[in-house]
Amino acid sequence: MARAHCLLGTISTLAGQKIEDNTTDGLSLERLYALKGTDGRTWGQVVDGQKLGVGIGRAGSGATHEIGFPVLQYRGSLEEVIPIETEDATREAYRKANITTRWKTYPGEHLTADQLAKDDTVKWLGDRFEGKPEFGNCLLP
After folding, report:
1. Residue at 77 is within a domain
2. Per the domain annotation, does 118 fall within a domain?
3. Model pTM?
4. For the chain, percent helix, then strand, then coil, each to nearest 5?
5. Is 71 helix (H, G, I), strand (E, B) or coil?
C-alpha cells in the first residue's frame, strides 16, 4: 500500500495502524523480526547488528566513533517500528559518553511523530548552524 503513495499520502493512509495491518500475513513486529533473510540471519539479528551508540565517545576521546556535535533524538509515544528499549539504550549510551543530547517525545507513532517533529527539528538544526549552544536535557547522574 505504501508504494502507491507519496510521504503525505503514506502518513495519512497508514497513521495509527499496526504493523500487522500492513503485512500480507498479518505478521506482528516480533514475527517479522523472527523471519530469516537469504543469508540465514533473522531480521531481528540484522536490526540488532546496527546498534547506534556502540563505540561512541566525545571528540578526542579515542572512541571508535567520535562525536563532536550535539545530538537530537525523538520518538513517538506510540512507536511500534523501533522498540522503546532500543531508543532508550541509544539515549543512555550517548548520556554515558557525555555527548550533548536533546530528547523529546511526540504523540503518535512512527510516521506521525516525524511529521510532528519536523518544525522542532528544523529549528534545532537552524540553531546549530547559527552557532547557538545546545546544552541537552539528558543529564549525567
Report:
1. yes
2. yes
3. 0.66
4. 45, 15, 45
5. strand
